Amino acid sequence: SQKIEQNSEALNIQEGKTATLTCNYTNYSPAYLQWYRQDPGRGPVFLLLIRENEKEKRKERLKVTFDTTLKQSLFHITASQPADSATYLCALDMAGANNLFFGTGTRLTVIP
Amino acid sequence: DAGVIQSPRHEVTEMGQEVTLRCKPISGHNSLFWYRQTMMRGLELLIYFNNNVPIDDSGMPEDRFSAKMPNASFSTLKIQPSEPRDSAVYFCASSLKTGGNQPQHFGDGTRLSIL
């Protein structure tokens, strides 16, 4: 069956450290993978998109990698801040479909 | 620019009642998506439209759910009759066009509680 698993439900990290979140998928062959941030009581907000032929994408303190052999994406936040505390969702497409499939998310807490 | 607008933000109603959720997508966006989010199942796609036409409704749980998009600036999701297991947060999202390379822009959702 198809699965999108994000490493853990919750991740606590000290301010200033690098947070690394994992997204693993099974029985998908995505051409694109996206990452979203969701704050309590709000809808998800798009952060980054990476294509299957890109190994890495950066945006300010954010970095995403995409390994189609391992079927895994890593999402890094460097120099983490308490304001980065939120739930982060990965989403991917599937060949022949025009919609996204979302993981269940990882709740990140950055401790001052 | 205004983002995706959903109404109501909260809805509490009794089992058996009809519920109508509303969504105004971002102007110029041609694709609209309805999702349901629960703790157990995460974010699930219910249905999506492209140019006001329903493309994939395979995620709609059952016949009690229906969705319409009468024009490019308005969509509704209706549940009739509602049941307690329909309690969830319902999100609407829009994108410029369909495709995995298109970022989706979400509204802030409708928190639905069926008693």
Helix and strand element order of chain B: EEEEEEEEEEE
Class derived from helix and strand content of chain B: mainly beta
Question: Total strand count of chain B, please?
Answer: 11
Shape of chain B: globular
Percentage of residues assigned to helices of chain A:
under 10%
Number of strands of chain A: 11
* Global structural class of chain A: mainly beta
Distance between the termini of chain A: 40 Å
Account of the protein in words:
The complex is a heterodimer of chains A (112) and B (115). Chain A contains no helices and 11 strands. In chain A, strands 2, 4, 5, 9, 10 and 11 form a 6-stranded mixed beta sheet that branches. Chain A is mainly beta. Chain A has strands at residues 3-6, 10-14, 19-26, 32-38, 45-51, 56-59, 62-67, 72-77, 86-92, 101-102, 106-111. Helix content of chain A is 0%, strand content 55%. Chain B is mainly beta and 115 residues long. In chain B, the strands form 2 sheets. In chain B, strands 2, 4, 5, 6, 9, 10 and 11 form a 7-stranded mixed beta sheet that branches. In chain B, strands 1-3-8-7 form a 4-stranded antiparallel beta sheet, with no helix packed on it. In chain B, β7 and β8 (74-79) form a beta hairpin. The N and C termini of chain B lie far apart (36 Å). The model of chain B has no long low-confidence stretch (mean pLDDT 95). The chains are: A mainly beta (112), B mainly beta (115). The interface between A and B is medium-sized, with 25 and 26 residues.
